[in-house]
Design brief:
With 134 residues, the protein is α+β, with helices and mostly antiparallel strands. It contains two helices and eight strands; from the N terminus they run E-E-E-E-E-E-E-E-H-H. The strands form three sheets. A four-stranded antiparallel beta sheet has the order 4-2-7-8, with no helix packed on it. Strands 1-5 form a two-stranded antiparallel ribbon. Strands 3-6 form a two-stranded antiparallel ribbon. Strand 7 and strand 8 form a beta hairpin. The longest helix is centred in the C-terminal third of the chain and has 28 residues.
Length: 134
């Protein structure tokens, strides 16, 4: 999960909370944290927040909630609260079904090669026979 924001005006005391989207009962955090903060983001600046997660079990139709973003435009300005764009619903596929879907299919390719060689080798054999007979 990557959260990225482009700042058009200078922002102070920016926090992002993505902990509601990725439940600890369903996901292990591999790298990063689900909450981050920055004291200052300059005008035109871009901050990225990356979290790598591993699912604890296979699950279908994972629905997440947007990350909560809070910031101040000035030191004494009121706290502005917003949300990131939402992640569309997605499925977590098991390793076995992923390997099955992305396998090389050597047996199927072998059968295909054998069947494809018949229409190629028959005309080749006829041509070769006419060349040697002449």
């Amino acid at each position: 999960m990557t959260s990225s924001m482009l700042v058009l005006v200078r922002q102070l005391y920016v926090t992002i909370d993505d902990s509601r989207a990725w439940d600890a009962a369903d996901f292990n955090t591999i790298v990063g944290v689900t909450q981050a903060s920055w004291d200052k983001i300059p005008h035109g600046g871009n901050m990225s927040h990356v979290v790598v997660l591993r699912p604890k079990h296979e699950k279908e139709d994972i629905k997440t909630v947007p990350a909560l973003i809070q910031y101040r435009a000035a030191p004494k300005a009121p706290l502005t609260v917003g949300y990131s764009t939402s992640v569309p619903v997605f499925d977590i596929e098991s390793t076995i079904s992923n390997d099955r879907r992305n396998a090389l299919y050597a047996k199927e390719w072998g059968v295909f090669a054998l069947l494809a060689s018949i229409p190629i080798s028959l005309p080749l054999a006829v041509w070769f026979f006419t060349q040697t007979a002449a």
